[in-house]
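Structure ticket #2291
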Amino acid sequence: MANDKKLVWQENICAGCGTCERSCPSEPRAIVITEGKVVIDYNLCDACGICIKDCPVKALSFEVLA
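Resolution: structure written out below.
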C-alpha cells in the first residue's frame, strides 16, 4: 500500500538538478525545487516512485512507516 511509504530526500546527496520535479506526474507537482532544496507535498505525492527511479544521484528513497 502506498500509504505506508513516505518519500524521503537526502540533502547531503542531492545535486539540485530538478530531475525529480520534472519527472513528477502529479499536477500540481508533489515535488518542487525551492532555493536548491526539495520540497515534498505529501498531500499530492502518491508514492509512485518515478522521481526515485529518475534521480541521477539517488537522493530520494521511500521510508516505510511503521
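Closing remark: The mean pLDDT is 92.
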